[in-house]
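Lab notebook: predicted structure, single chain.

Context: the supervisor wants predicted structures on file for every construct in the current expression panel, including those that have not yet been purified. This is the next one on the list. No modifications to the sequence; it matches the entry in the shared construct table.
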Amino acid sequence: MKALFRYIYFEIVYFNMDSKDPVFFMEQQRFDQLWVRLLVVALIVFVWYGAIQQLIFGISFGNNPASDPVMLLLLIVFGILFPAFMLSLKMVTEVRNDGLYIRFYPIHRSFRRFTFESIRSYEVRDYSPLKDYGGWGIRFGPKGQAYNVSGSKGVVLVLEDGKRLMVGSQHPDELAAAISRGMDAS
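Prediction complete. Output recorded below exactly as produced.
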């Protein structure tokens, strides 16, 4: 099933891609950490248990139970939609001949582009997602903005306006090499 979704993703993303716009680097990251999966599964089990208990067996769930329509809404939102959202979350990083592209799907409808001209400098760095940026995802912290999914390695960009952008990567050296190649070509 995962392979099917990956195939559909690449068909949608690359179907209209101009052949003159080669991709030097491409990385797709998901929230695959065990603790994230366990939290989502625990939420699913809890919500489905309560919904089945109350909606099918007629046994009130909890000391102050929600009404049946509210329980149905909770089941739809936290038992179906939220897990589907968590499964679909992914960060796609690409280096093309005209810049660095980042997309946090499904939050971003399209890629965020950082042209090579707007990148003053970059370096591969180890970092602490919690301490430096307050967690994972699209984050703002004391050290600037970050796009990260897992791990503690990435490439820090210093942009023309002086802002710093951390791009988390499982392959930071390859990402930095692709940025260097793109900057040299432009």
